[in-house]
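Deviation from plan, reported transparently: zinc ion complex.
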Amino acid sequence: MGERKQKQISKKKFLALPENKYCCYCGEVATTVDHFPPRNIFHNRKYPEGYIYPCCFSCNSSKKNDEQSIGFILSLMDWNMEEKEDDFLIRYKAIKNNNPKLLEEFQQLSKIQSKKILRHRLGSQNTVIKLGMLDWTVFTCGPEVTRLLNELCVWFAQTGYFKHNLEIFSGEVISYKIPSEYVNEQNFWNIIEKMVGIPIIVETGHNISNQFFYRYFSTKGGFFSIFQFGAPQYLFLICALSERHTPTYSDLPSGWSRSGPIGPKIRFDN
Ligand SMILES: [Zn+2]
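Because the crystal trials were delayed, the predicted structure below was used instead.
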């Protein structure tokens, strides 16, 4: 049997399961299978097994372009980007065609400003030299990058909630981006160690946690997770809070984003 035919059969089987009847994003009837995290963000398309979700045609097709842009942003944010330059150039060309406004908002900083920021992020000039980053240029980005990264956080929350809480998420997602150099702080690991789920992420038998990592903690009506891709300059922290738990406060600590209401408007159970 051809690979294509086999894929169609396994997709059919997956959607025939009662828990996969509805789209995990909007609650409409699911007719497609969505890979999340999206396959395109993985280097050499070594994407993890088992991270598939029931999805309606409309949600699946409306995600495509943004997934491509998110793949580009994540590869830009990878500290090991230089090793993956070919991959980066392919992404860059695609974005130039499909989402040029994303490229327009990147602003190159001067050499002096770039040096200052790298020194600050990496702790010292010595580290900058040791890592061979002396000639690196720093770019600032704008609202389109923020929108796309918030979208990534919401999708991560929706799929994680669906996978681990076994229901479609309906509520609000709050998210935060943590600069990765903070991860060495003991406080951070104290929090991480309290998160019970330690998934081992595999692709055809190989552990690919060096490309994708997450830990989570789930409760009834809540899903909390920290995740990262590649060797990132940032990690993401998300809290998915169902309507039962949506915070009533109007202000979040600075740096946190609020999604507004997420999930199915109406849900029919027959
Ligand atoms: Zn949908």
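Residues 23, 25-26, 28, 55-56, 58-59 surround zinc ion (CB under 6 Å). We consider this an acceptable substitute for the interim report.
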